[in-house]
Amino acid sequence: MSWIMHHSKSEEYASQAQAALKQGNEKSAVEFYRLAAKEEELAITKLDQSKTRTLGITAVSATSLWFKAHDLWQAEHVAHQWLATDLLPTFSINQLQIILQAIWNEKNYQQVGIEFMKGEVLVSVGGGIVVPGGAPLDLILRKVDEVRGLFYRTIEYLLNLPLRKRGVPSADIQEQFRPWLLQAPLGSYQFAVRVQKPAQLSIFPDKTPEVEDVTQNFLKIVEATAEETHEELERIVPNPEYREAFLKLTRNLSPTGKSFDRVEIKSTTDIEARPIIFSPTSRQAINKTLKENKKPPKEVAEFKEEQLNGVLRALHLDKDWIEISFPGTDRENIKINQTGDIIDDLVGPMVNHRVIVDVFVQPDGKYLFRDIQSEE
Amino acid sequence: MTIPLLPLNDLAKRHPGLTPALAESYLEAARVCLDRHHKPPQEFTLKNRASEQQALVEWESPGERSRRAWANINDATRDGAYACALAATELSLGLFAIRRAETLTGADYYIAPSNNLIIDLEDCLRLEVSGTNLDIYEVQRRLNIKVKQAQEGKSNLPALAAVVGFKVKLISMRSVEGIS
Fold first, then answer.
1. What DSSP string runs through B52-89?
2. Fewest C-beta in 10 Å: which of A139, A299, B86, B180?
3. What number is the ipTM of this complex?
4. Tens digit of each residue's pLDDT (9 = 90 or more) over A48-77
């Protein structure tokens, strides 16, 4: 049999595998990919090695097919076998190296028994005090915390859960959908996030397709919050409470321009996806939308509006108050009441950090809460 | 002058690199993507560096079942773009999907005139396909990415890049020379 005959058989099996995957039959898909990989390996043996382009394409194809058949050992073996020759064109050397990296990552995850859901998100923080590959620890910890919060909110939204205002996500959600922080290539400062595959996705039977694609849904929502106007967000998140929560969470993620000036979020699995960029302008756009959506009640129309810049020193959301201090000044701490609609995971990362708080000041000097955002 | 029809139907009969099942699946995805923005029929612009032509796109509206099956917008856009891009290369350039080869995240299609006797991939063009539901700027941006990748030698080119803009009714194609 010739290269073309083995390759044709491989194509046929690979197409069947793709069709099986589409029908949700992963077991059958893996078996078809295994058959396709075997045929592709046979195809290479029948090829005149002076046909370097065909050789390179087929070597990449065989390695990819073993990878898709979940036979990592064989995939690695084929990649090394051909990389060790000087027969391959540059493009296929590059591709085989990328597949090898994916194989090694997958092996590491398998060794510790971890499976991830589809997709990966790369978050880059840049500008200001952030240097290539380095950033202040507290800044990055906060960004990681905010991204984790957004992931959990996305999952809760996809599961049609009522908006959580207090506490952490339920034990079920935390157990089943655990976000992971992964190393990312050197950039301004970057980290990658993936969500671990739930052990029992079946406990959310009605929402399986949406939740399976949590990373993509996360990106869609985050992208819609970064737009200049928020019509698209209204379309994809019709629930106004969730919409407000997403806007406030991404506002915190956005820079003010003081210590850094750019946050980029993008999919690493879809290389063509447009990066979502948050700049100080994005924060202003989000503030505008939030302000428009939240007109002050009539009874406080005569109260004075004020913006406080300080440090969030204390809070007791169950008792409806937060306290702001003003380090480096003589000004006394201010207690702000009626924090009713603040949500925990929004305000939690702000404790002991600089914040901007919009308040109403009553004629008797008491402060009523209106809005809070981080000042980073 | 009659506007030619974009040959979306029965792709597998003319494109040996597609199986009937896969061609049907791509067509179904294309229907879902087209129906998201338009009502049939619609005129699409098929553009490449040298020329521009109009093509009439006709499709049957997908049923609820198809829409549910293609609820993942990314998968639908990617596979629907394959159907439209292959139909466009057939209509505009007389090129057909001859073979496919796997990559880490999907598969590449190799195109050539259909009367060629194909015994290897040395003279085939690789078809680089991308689909988007966004604006013209995004179609152009994606095409530029493909060209840049080719110039950096990251792809197994020479290739033909095709970007399908479902919303803006544009299929933009450009041939790119590779470094291999």
1. EEEEEE--PPP-HHHHHHT--HHHHHHHHHHHHHHHHH
2. A299
3. 0.84
4. 999 999 999 999 999 999 999 999 999 999
